[in-house]
Amino acid sequence: EQNPRSLFGGGRYDDLLQIFKTPRVPAVGFGVGDVTFTDFLKTHELIPDLASSTKLLVATLEGKHDESVYNLAQQLRKAGISVATDTTERKISTKIKNADKNKIPFVVFIGDEEEESGSYKLKELATGEETTVDVTKLIAHLS
After folding, report:
1. DSSP letter for each residue of 70-106
2. Which partner from 22, 29, 79, 129 sits 20 to 30 angstroms from 46, CA to CA?
């Protein structure tokens, strides 16, 4: 498949400034088309499929368990697991959509119950499956 569109363009524009009532000024211009360049890369399959190395999003349920989120994230990072956190007060659905958009395959939410019990519902976004795990099982599952 061909992409017959120009990727770069330019030329002389000596008369262009006269539209502003100025004397004739020698001018040249050059531009790169970002859309045409992206089209070219797609046509020739030159855009790599960039997968996120982040395995898990740890987030607050009610927006008030920041410390628990950070503590769990720190434990997981010490075990070599790449973790993102979200302690904003956004809706759970928004947090899940953002994790999915960023290709993070798993999420754990921390609320009152999780903070007290130390067990978490690990949700796999691709399947919607939830598994209840403690920190040890979580590390084993994600390693």
Report:
1. HHHHHHHHHTT--EEEE-S---HHHHHHHHHHTT--E
2. 29
